Amino acid sequence: MTPREASQASLEFGGPLGVTAILVLLPATMFHLLLVARSGPARLLGPPTYLPGLEELWSPQALLLLFIWLGLQVALYLLPARKVAEGLELKDKSRLRYPINGFQALVLTALLVGLGVSAGLPLGALPEMLLPLAFATTLTSFIFSLLLYVKALAAPVSALAPGGNSGNPIYDFFLGRELNPRLGSFDFKYFCELRPGLIGWVFINLALLIQEAELRGSPSLAMWLVNGFQLLYVGDALWYEESVLTTMDIIHDGFGFMLVFGDLAWVPFIYSLQAQFLLYHPQPLGLPMALLICFIKAIGYYIFRGANSQKNTFRKNPSDPSVAGLQTIPTATGRQLLVSGWWGMVRHPNYLGDLIMALAWSLPCGLSYLLPYFYLLYFTALLVHREARDEQQCLRKYGRAWQEYCKRVPYRIIPYVY
Ligand SMILES: NC(=O)C1=CN([C@@H]2O[C@H](COP(=O)(O)OP(=O)(O)OC[C@H]3O[C@@H](n4cnc5c(N)ncnc54)[C@H](OP(=O)(O)O)[C@@H]3O)[C@@H](O)[C@H]2O)C=CC1
Ligand SMILES: CC(C)CCC[C@@H](C)[C@H]1CC=C2C3=C(CC[C@@]21C)[C@@]1(C)CC[C@H](O)C[C@@H]1CC3
Known about the structure:
Bound molecules: NADPH dihydro-nicotinamide-adenine-dinucleotide phosphate, the ligand CC(C)CCC[C@@H](C)[C@H]1CC=C2C3=C(CC[C@@]21C)[C@@]1(C)CC[C@H](O)C[C@@H]1CC3
Radius of gyration: 22 Å
Largest sheet: 2 strands, antiparallel
Number of helices: 18
Mean pLDDT: 95
Low-confidence stretches: none
Strand content: under 5%
Distance between the termini: 35 Å
């Protein structure tokens, strides 16, 4: 079997046909959810109450606001970093360098937005622009992905990702051909993964909270909880920004439409669905229930952070006192697999913590509507798929050692369930 036939054989997402469908369905789903969230019935599975015309979707002001936002985040990315980290070794034995200044960018953005609001910036008007902003971001994602595809045509073979080089243009456009597309030292994938979308998510939430205060006198407890929980999640991701350098998105996946649209559009506009829903469907939330939800969030974060930090510490320094006592399985690569502690409970304890947090920030929306739980449903599917992809990669990396690990840790995400 030739390498291209082999790569054709291992096509994901249903190959070219599946990917063509996803290219249409992803943006369509996002616009459906944006419309349903602001509609009275808020029916996740029903048709939106109306279909917006192009005059409602297209706004030069929204496009300008998007480019101002992207420009601001690029400028903050290029500021001197508290640390510069090296990525994992590439095929050509080199290592790329990445600025670790994401949390700094979040804080500086908050200061700038705060100054803007105090000077009269109408942040509360942003919710009205979500549709045209999402349209502008989707358009930008397609164009940016096309430019990345063309750029990759000139890239050396060593710079290409294993996945997005099937030879089928649609498939490669979606998966991404180049592994680490850069302009000088500016890394497009690393920048998009953690900056404009993730930080944008927090400020869309804040705008929705401000709009609720303007509409009803003060933000609801549910809106405060959703904002607080998701701010913690983004702040944590940016504080531990360096750990992204070992994720499959950075080390394995090409940078194509899936991650471009996922980072720039899906995260800010879909991950803020709970706050969007609450603005148009205020939900009563008593203090006892709020405290219970905070407890659920705390459990999720404890597992999420504990598991991620344990693995990342172990990978950086297996002799660190916090992980030195854990049981391990040696592998032929020289790396070891943790088989006790969080990673002895299930094979992806971090996913379990993340899912519990997703439940916690959906619960403040009550149980009368399915829409606020879309994220939990989508995220469960994403992590199940991601876990399967990671298993394949780990089986290839570690062979029998991974098989032994799976025997000793039989559950993937939820103990005694899955
Ligand atoms: N909110 C969202 O939309 C998303 C959130 N996430 C979150 O991002 C975080 C990172 O997830 P993800 O990128 O999937 O990667 P993971 O953090 O789960 O890392 C997987 C890698 O960890 C290493 N590993 C696995 N098992 C062991 C073990 N027993 N001992 C030592 N190393 C092990 C392997 O890499 P190696 O051995 O090569 O080091 C494996 O490839 C998670 O917390 C996840 O919940 C992820 C996707 C989307
Ligand atoms: C919608 C598409 C089919 C899939 C797009 C998936 C992306 C939205 C996610 C792929 C991996 C991600 C990670 C994060 C955010 C979502 C995306 C980009 C985090 C940055 C979230 C915070 C965590 O602490 C780290 C995550 C790394 C992976």
